[in-house]
Amino acid sequence: MAERIGEPLDLAVRFRRLAAVTGELLAATTVAEVGEVVVGHLVDAAEATVGSLSVVDGTDLCLVAVRGARDGVAERWARYPLAGTTPAADSVRAGRPLVFSGRAELLAAYPSMELASDGDRTLVCLPLQGNADALGAVTLSWDGNRDVDAAGLEFFAVCADACAQAITRIAAQREVQLREERLQFLADASAELASSLDYEATLNAVARLAVPDFADWCVIQLLVDGQLRPLALAHPDAFTSERILELQERYPPDPDAPRGAYQVIRSGEPELIGDITDDMLAAAATDAEHLQILRDLHFRSAVSAPLRVRDRVLGVISWVTGTSAYRYTSADVEFLEDLARRAAVAIDNAELHSQLRDLASRLQRAVLPARLPQPDGWTVAAHYAAAGRTDAGGDFYDVVVLPDGRIAVFVGDVMGRGVEAASTMAQMRAAIRTLIAQDPAPEEVMDGLDRMFTMFDPEQLVTVVYGLVETAPDGTARLRLVSAGHPSPLLRRADGTSRVLAPSDPLLLGVGGGQRQVTEVDVGHGDIVLMFTDGLIERRDEALDDGEGRLAAAAAGLVADDLAAGLPRVVDQVRDPNRDDDVAILALHRR
Questions:
Q1: What domains lie within the chain, and their CATH numbers?
Q2: What is the pTM of this model?
Q3: What is the pLDDT of residues 281-303, one digit of tens each?
Q4: Type and span of the H or E element at 165
């Protein structure tokens, strides 16, 4: 006669056991802990030989807890297909308990099933049902042929329901936690992407952010001349990183492959491979060594998304799991797509900035004189010191020698940087040279600039200092100066002493109203006139006199015969090394 499983489970015992299960499940924080609680209590209460819990993971069932099984069983059944013909899988798909009392019933339902022993075997499978989805199954088995009465089966089902509720709770908590982690990751990644226009450095930082929380390794590839080139690679192990790079170099991906990065490029759509099988690796490998490398990397799951912006696909970002057990889902696809969009915008912005920067630099080089004229009796030199930033500034200078021997000199500064500043700089230089050709007198040139600004209302603010040198028949050289919001030039006498030539007119171009003051000074033999932009002498929290004092001290060491080499030294001695501003300096030496 078959032993009845439900007989030892009287009502009081069931309530005590259920209370214990419920209490311990409330304290469980992982599915593995839930499995240990439920399997342990059910095996003890039912005096079962073996108990286990398997949960649904995509298209598979994963074994998360087992008790009483023989060696090797847990490894063999660590993962098995949900669509397969097994008691647990059938119970999950059917959504109802399955009971097999005895060897004959088991083999009738599953002829190819391997039993743990030659004797009779009784098996109970209890499905775990969530709010709408099947979550997994609890299985219990006994040696021998046993009857499972309704009371015992009801108790098992109640425990299974408690297990399902705990798994649902943990999954919901994990979903909230994962959502918060993803939002924080996107915030951190966005901050990295916005921190610099060096997209190679920022994308490497973003790749490192993803590992190991969201991927075992991350690869970002850009499309260059039709070929994908690795730009960023992150993996916690340096040796594995080298192996991945070696793999890509020795065995570049097939551009016509039906899956992989090139397919993502062609389609412009993300790709999810929830479970990378050995058959997939074998199909991708070109030879036995290639296959072994792929196997050694332990590919498990992968998700890729295109770096797409403005109807262009710039490249691909891929996350891969290997040693971890995580398998990507559609939620990960949406998450990675969000990151890919942000990265693509950052790359596009950096490329646009690079193009504008190059344009501004070319425009600046075209505007600044390649060579300065050297009038009779004079030496002219200039130096342009760019700040640490990569985009072009708006500082400009020029020297014009008139047919009658007079010398027009000017230095200006357009506020701002980039194409706009360089464009305004070009317009200013052209306008000043045009006004010089009409009438080089300082008051006329500045009045013309003021009128031009009043008429055209340019968006950039501009300062400028202009001077005209005229040598009288008796050999006296007189410099007449006028300024619009620009630092005053410095006159270094032949004896090494210096003086500021005139107070700077604080009114910018366009607001002078014809009230500009013209300053006159005689320039003797050996004297040097220095005209410069504000980046040379201005510092935060410092009076302008202090900067002018530093310049006077540095100018005392200028050697007239080596003027071109001396100007960079003056700039290095005087400027604020922490100030993000270009410096232009022009020197006019009377021999």
A1: 3-174 (3.30.450.40), 196-356 (3.30.450.40), 368-590 (3.60.40.10)
A2: 0.61
A3: 998 888 999 999 889 888 999 99
A4: helix 150-195
